[in-house]
Write a structure and sequence with these properties.
single chain, about 280 residues, alpha+beta, D-amino Acid Aminotransferase, Chain A, domain 1, D-amino Acid Aminotransferase, Chain A, domain 2, five-stranded antiparallel beta sheet, 14 strands, about 25% strand
Length: about 280
């Protein structure tokens, strides 16, 4: 096992993922991807809150919060910047979809470097659609096959990211980021009530930018005055091109960057913006 990866079953360290782990078999789990700044996770509480919400919705037991945070801190005890991934699954059980009551959860922590900087993104519209499933909307569950298919479209097109719609054609998000558009001087972002992930970065920016949730169609995005993507690792990434539509940097983007920098030192002026990264 890599020195940058730690695995646990309940509170006990283990050497490998169990063959019957439900996360491996069914995607029966949750994950959080966090930006680490100088050895700390400034948005730890927000990530743990979303993980707790997802665990409650899926009836997955949470490990001890204090142990998880202590183990996460020890992975970055050198004070470095980086990315921390926390993966939680229901644990192992007999074959079949039905979960076992009281199953002991499995969880993993992994340390990764920050992705390379990028000033803007080239995006496409993905053909892959997000299925409507309100029971899973908002939480960051482990079944990400829709995003895997959409990212393959991005790679084939030579694009940095892809925007995804739901089965009704309504815009939801990018493959690994939430979406904000500027129209008539107001930032708008799609609601995450039927599908998609309610990002921690999105949650910070909604009140900071006085943004409004609104259902968007493709034309609403293409006619916007500015468009940016955001997630907890890269922060804000402006969209420079979407198909044939292009955008110059809008002055309102500087205000958005400043607002985010006040919440997380990793996104403060002078810190490099992060490149595109899936999950």
């Amino acid at each position: 096992m890599s020195a940058g990866v730690r695995l646990f079953r309940g509170a006990r360290p283990v050497d490998a993922v169990a063959p019957d782990d439900r996360g491996l078999a069914y995607g029966d789990g949750l994950f959080e991807t966090m930006r680490v700044h100088a050895g700390t996770v400034p948005w730890w509480d927000a990530h743990w809150s979303r993980l707790s919400l997802g665990a409650a919705r899926l009836s997955i037991a949470l490990p001890d919060a204090g142990q998880v945070r202590a183990e996460a801190g020890s992975l970055f005890d050198d004070g470095a910047h980086g990315v921390l991934k926390l993966l939680l699954t229901r644990g192992g059980s007999a074959r079949g979809y039905a979960p076992i009551d009281g199953a002991e959860p499995s969880w993993m922590l992994a340390r990764h470097p920050l992705p390379a900087p990028a000033a803007s993104a080239r995006a496409i519209w993905c053909d892959t659609r997000l299925a409507l499933q309100p029971a899973l909307a908002g939480i960051k569950h482990c079944n990400r096959l829709e995003q895997v298919l959409a990212r393959a479209e991005c790679v084939a097109a030579g694009a940095d990211e892809g925007l995804m719609c739901d089965g009704q054609g309504t815009v939801v998000s990018a493959t690994s980021a939430n979406l904000f558009v500027l129209r008539d001087g107001r930032w708008l972002t799609p609601p995450i009530d039927r599908c998609g992930v309610a990002g921690t970065c999105r949650a910070i920016l909604l009140p900071a930018l006085d943004a409004r949730e609104q259902r968007l169609q493709r034309g609403d995005v293409e006619r916007a005055d500015a468009v940016f993507l955001c997630n907890a690792v890269r922060g804000i990434l402006p969209v420079a091109r979407l198909g044939a539509r292009t955008w110059e940097l809008h002055p309102a983007l500087a205000q958005a960057h400043a607002a985010l920098g006040r919440s997380h030192p990793g996104f403060a002026p002078g810190q490099s913006a992060s490149a595109m990264e899936a999950g």
